[in-house]
Amino acid sequence: MLSTLRRSRRTLWHIALPSLWVTASAISLNDNLVEITSVTGDSMSPTLSPDQDTTGRSDYIAWNKWDASGHVQRGDIVFFGLPNRPEDTGVKRVIGVEGDVVVLDARRRPKSGNGNANGNTNPTAGSHDVPESKSWDAWSGRAKVPEGHVWVEGDNWRKSKDSNWYGPISRSLILGKAMAVVLPTEKFGAKPWEGFASGTTVVRERVDTRTDLEVLEAMGTAT
Amino acid sequence: MLRSSLTRLRINRDASILLRLVQRSRLASSKTPPKPNAFDFHQKRTSETIVPPASSQWTLSSFVRPLPDLGRIPSNVAAYLFCACIAFHIFSEYGFVLEGAYGISMLPTIASDGDWLWISKYYRRGRDLKVGDVVSFRHPIRPGEYAVKRIIGMPGDFVLRDTPEKGHMMMQVPNGHCWLVGDNLTYSRDSRMFGMLPLALITGKVLGPVRWSGWTIPYLEKLEHGLQPAVLDDGDVE
User: Fold this and answer.
1) Domain extents for chain A?
2) What is the DSSP letter of A12?
3) Which UniProt keywords apply (chain A) (predicted)?
4) Of B86, B125, B142, the CB nearest to A86
5) For residue A212, which of A32, A147, B123, B138 is within the disulfide window of CB 3.0 to 4.6 Å?
6) pLDDT of res. B67
7) pLDDT value at residue B46
8) What is residue A202's predicted lDDT score, i.e. its pLDDT?
9) ipTM above 0.85, yes or no
10) Which CATH fold topology does A33-219 show?
């Protein structure tokens, strides 16, 4: 009886407690430095998770979480909290940064046919307008990315719910930038997203020296 | 002659005491606790050889003779410091955190010259939040900055887009967003300025500022949500 007690206390000190610390350290590492997640859905095919529909395997990416909302460049793959579903995250490519004017691609106009990013490929489904089509039309083909925001798009224009659906996202939503592929092991360390030529053209204009916030404040005090 | 032999005896005795201290501290870190060992002052060690420790683990401390424990103190301190940092991060990321806030936009709820706010991280990303809660969030326009405002509308609610006297256009809060307004309407930059805020930007709910009673005892001044039940005024009905 005493030896069982002593043994269980020894187990606590030598196995359970170190496991707890290792888990806590892993969580801290995940929050601040590096996190590895899988990329599900077709919105980034064939750059990421190209075999998902056929084999069900998705790619695992290592995300750099240090100062993730810092300097974000066009072409970066980012991991962000979704603006329409706060508990979920999305993986897309940054197409335009603040101040850019994105010339909207007509193929990416929100319809019921595209945007089904999780494998719902019903070819007989009719393609009609959705509520987001109206807000896409309101841009009149040119979307100016406001201060502190970025325009993100998925590489697969047929099946991507991105900024064409929910507009430019705040840079503060970005949780991580892609570092390298971790799994599958054949692609370990690869960066398949580099060198991708997005079909969307972006007009890079110089940002007005007055920030949008200052402009709005000036308008606010004037009234 | 006698003195030198006594000195030698004392040196040997000291050496054996120190050696036993080293062995005991090393045994204490291994599985079984050491048996209490009476110092045997009469045991004469012929030479000052170092006896290998029981766990056959040579460490720096086995060579440092005057103060054998000094070699272990820095590594212990480093380990404890690391564990403290990890524990603090876990607690402040998923539990509660004390954050300083200053500014006039939330007067009179939060002091303008700086208040320490007790924030619960359970409510991050909009979980279980209701109209009237004061929340801290990552600023949508200035990445890296945080702000504190009150929720006026949750998804589905209709909110006034401008200050009440200055406009009457109303908007419906879409899915996954909220409408925030500061308590000091005149001097607050909030959703009237930057629009709907994605709930994913919310980092926690402010339970209240920590104030001091009598300069020594801190207490939490719980914030109310400010909503009042609708009162039916049926004075005209007879």
Assistant:
1) 33-219
2) I
3) Hydrolase, Membrane, Mitochondrion, Mitochondrion inner membrane, Protease, Signal, Transmembrane, Transmembrane helix
4) B125
5) A147
6) 46
7) 47
8) 79
9) no
10) Umud Fragment, subunit A (2.10.109)
